[in-house]
Amino acid sequence: MLPEADLARIYRSLRLIRRAEEETARIYPSDRIKSPVHLAIGQEAVATGICDPLRPEDVVAPTYRSHALYLAKGGSLRGMMAEMYGKATGVAAGKGGSMHLIDAARHVLGASAVVGTTIPLAVGYALALKREGKGRVAVALFGDGATEEGVFYESLNFASLHRLPVLFVCENNGFAIHTPLAKRWASEKLCDRAAGFGLPTTRIADGDVLAIRESAAGYVEKMRKRESGPAFMECLTYRWREHVGPAEDYDAGYRPHSDLEAWQKTDQVARIGGMLKAEARAKVDAAIEAEIADAVAFAEQSPWPDPKELTADVYA
Description:
Layout: H1 4-27, H2 44-51, E1 59-61, H3 67-72, H4 77-84, H5 118-132, E2 138-143, H6 150-161, E3 166-172, E4 175-176, E5 179-180, H7 190-195, E6 201-204, H8 209-224, E7 231-236, H9 257-264, H10 268-274, H11 278-301
Parallel strand pairs: 1-2, 2-3, 3-7, 6-7
Antiparallel strand pairs: 4-5
Helix pairs in contact: 1-2, 1-10, 1-11, 2-8, 4-11, 5-6
């Protein structure tokens, strides 16, 4: 069992992501949020488990379902909410929206809406970190759909060839939008594909945030000491809401509600929260609610971008 302080920190990350996403889903139908949203409700354990062993100076590269990794790495909730509102105070000055979160101060590389494109960016950054020689690492987080892009295999090969300090994490929620892995690949053994490039691999099938954390910590520590090169983790998880948007979609016919019920029984937010004393948990919950209310108020009160921003940073 981890010390109480560690459990409280992990719970805070899980709970912050869950509540920020639920608040986003609540606000979204009002049209105050101006960008599409890909929510990570149900998937919080992957981002939290991966980021908890990282240092502030380590680098993460998110996919377009970026809220969880962004927040787990310490990204500004105010900046995220304002960005979704399209306000000038957003992390991309209101131009990027939900799928393009970035926080350079906290080493969150810009997320991208194009599947798989942040994987080679993490690899390139890892090359720079190796040459820097300060023991920093990079993490690429992506969905199972991204493993079908050619750049995924090129990145694995290059990283392995040069023994780069990069952790590849496949956040496998079972679907590429609506299509399950079994209908896209003859074999579902993602770890075997990574192992073919010489990477050590771990598959965590039950969404256990503490197991994810332990595995990530082990790989990262070896990379810091230059005892190993890149590694690959496949973390099975499950998104509770639709692919894009705030609603449920179980009436669409591509997945049964019973799958959701099975994952809810092992919900890591509730599990880790249950390991804390009631008073400590209540204190964390109250602080998170205050932080979310502050971020929403900040977004709503922030100014719209100046019309001149339409042509700023445009070069052709």
